[in-house]
Each structure stands twice: as C-alpha cells, then as structure tokens.
Amino acid sequence: MDRLNLLRFVPFRINRLGAEFSQALAADYARFGIDIPEWRVLATLGMHDGPRSAAYVVRCTRTHKSRISRAVGHLVDLGLVERQEDEADRREIFLALSPKGRAVYGELVPLLLAREERLLAILSDAERRSLGALLEKLEASLDLMRCAGET
C-alpha cells in the first residue's frame, strides 16, 4: 500500500501556508472589528472604483457564498459596505465600499503590505519572482481569477 506523507503533499502545504499567512494578517484587520471573510470582501471591492456583485466577490475569493453573504451583512452593519440595486435587474445587488469602508481599506493596505514584506523577507528578489510565476502558473491551470479587471 502506498502511503501519503501529508507534510510533503503540495496541496496540503499550500493550504497550510495560506492559513498561516491569513492568520498573520488577521491581527491587523481584527483591530477594525473584521475577520478573514470580511477582509476578503473589503479587499475585493477595494481593488475597484465601482461596485461589484456578491457573485464577483465569491468568484474572486473562492469563498463560499454563504460566508460572503454573512460577511457582507456584518460589513453593512459596520457601515463599511453599501448595497446598491442594479437599475436593469432589481434582483441583482451590487456592493461598494462606503466612504468609511474606503478609509478603513486605505489604513489597512499599507499595514498588510508591510506584513507581507516581513513574511517574504526570507526570500531573495529572484525567489519572490519565481514564487510569483509559479503561483500564476498554478492559478492559470485551475482557471482561477487573477486579474482585478476580470468580471
């Protein structure tokens, strides 16, 4: 019988690293009363000037729609996100950062980029470029959204 060394299994390793990176970043946005799914909503909306649908946030973040829905509800309660009806299709709801949400996003981005820098400091510039290229290749192979401009 073949045995699987979980600690050498690439999907597990990527997932474990992702969880650790998320937890490291969570300390920064917890100060604003938000958690990981809520940050993902803010970050996705913050990439754009205009509103985006909840379905777009789900596709972009690969987070289950029920978690995004709860996150959006909390962000609306906090005054960070606004819901907007689509004029052409009233069933479709679009989301946008409120002015308060944009301010929180503006405060968080430099903190998170600095933390990312500290987490990646062990890698040389060439290793960072290689890591980026490898991640892009894996994302493309899984047909994951990679571009903020994709709808």
Automatic annotation (TrEMBL):
Organism: Methylobacterium crusticola
Record domain HTH marR-type: where: 1-140
Signal sequence, start to end: none
Phylogenetic lineage: Bacteria, Pseudomonadati, Pseudomonadota, Alphaproteobacteria, Hyphomicrobiales
Domain of life (superkingdom): Bacteria
Protein name: HTH marR-type domain-containing protein
Pfam families: MarR_2
